[in-house]
Amino acid sequence: MGTVHAGPAALAVGVDIGGTKVAAGAVDDQGRVVTEVRRETPGRSTRPRVVEDLIVAEVQSVLRHPLVVDRPVVGVGIGAAGFVSADRGTVVFSPHLSWRDEPLRSRLRDRLGLPVTLDNDANAAAWAEFRFGAGAGEPRLLMVNLGTGIGGGLVMDGRVERGRHGMAGEYGHMVVVPHGRRCECGNRGCWEQYASGSALRREARERLQAGGPYVAALAARCGGRVELLRGEDVTELAREGDEACREIVADVGEWLGLGLANLVAALDPGTIVVGGGVSTAGELLLGPARESLTRHLTGRGHRPTAPVRAASLGPWAGLIGAADLARADHALPGAGST
């Protein structure tokens, strides 16, 4: 399955586990993905062992690839959607999967026979954008990942900031609407209920169900079956110029900006990077987000405002970051400095 080796030619394998997909890939020391596989996440009701089996199968598939099989592999990095313990050995809680106090690092290490690094998936994405992407060179980077929910990562002075208990960066579960919509985490009014892929899909479905003269494109996209409408459909139609979808994306952008204003007030980052599937809407999302951020920011007009940039590594950020964190832990001097 590969030889542990600290040389510059060594690859690292990254695994990105989100709410809807598991992606794995081999990554070189420049952040380039050599090969990649993706499969759907089994789901929240699936037993932890089933998800573990899927991860093992994907990593083994990557290791058998012709571009990988003859090269040394330094280790495997896992970016998991959920709370990861301070020692980065256990997934304490995942709102989108069935993990509860899951000792994922040791189990995967035993099954794969390689060193394993475990971290939150948004931490991994933030690290990738800091090392190789839109935040390269910015020592105080705030990343917000808009996927099924909202993930967050923070790089402070060139280090991933994980907090005292390893659970920093769960921005998506800031309550922005007291007694608001019920969230999968158990609370109400969480930010991700208003500014995520799930929010985008929900708003589009509600608009389609309500009818009216502006939903023809949405109805055509899902064949009139509301339950088949996806967040990706909304962003694609918005980019194609559909006014209803542009309004929905702009509304999500306003909620995004509101949450960002709170984070800027608390953390004062140098750069904000927005990634995840929803960010493919580009300026249709980020324009309203910047306006909302400026409007809600405390001290507006009297303080610098961090630029808001689209992530540049796309759907590969999580696995690239997870792989690079594994490389730092297992191949470079000063392991654990990230």
Structural class: alpha/beta
Please state the overall shape, judged from the principal axes of the Cα atoms: globular
Helix content: 25-40%
Q: How are the strands of the biggest sheet laid out side by side?
A: 3-2-1-4-8
Q: What number of structural domains do the residues give?
A: 2
**Low-pLDDT runs:** 1-8, 332-337
Total DSSP helices: 9
CATH architecture of the largest domain: 2-Layer Sandwich
The name of the CATH topology of the largest domain is: Nucleotidyltransferase, domain 5
| Cα separation of the termini | 26 Å
The radius of gyration computed from the alpha-carbon positions, rounded to a whole number of angstroms, is 20 Å
| CATH class call of the largest domain | Alpha Beta
The CATH superfamily of the largest domain is known as ATPase, nucleotide binding domain
- Count of distinct strands: 13
Estimate the mean pLDDT confidence: 90
Quick one: biggest sheet?
Answer: 5 strands, mixed
Q: What order do the helices and strands follow?
A: EEEHEEEEHEHEEEHHHHEHEH
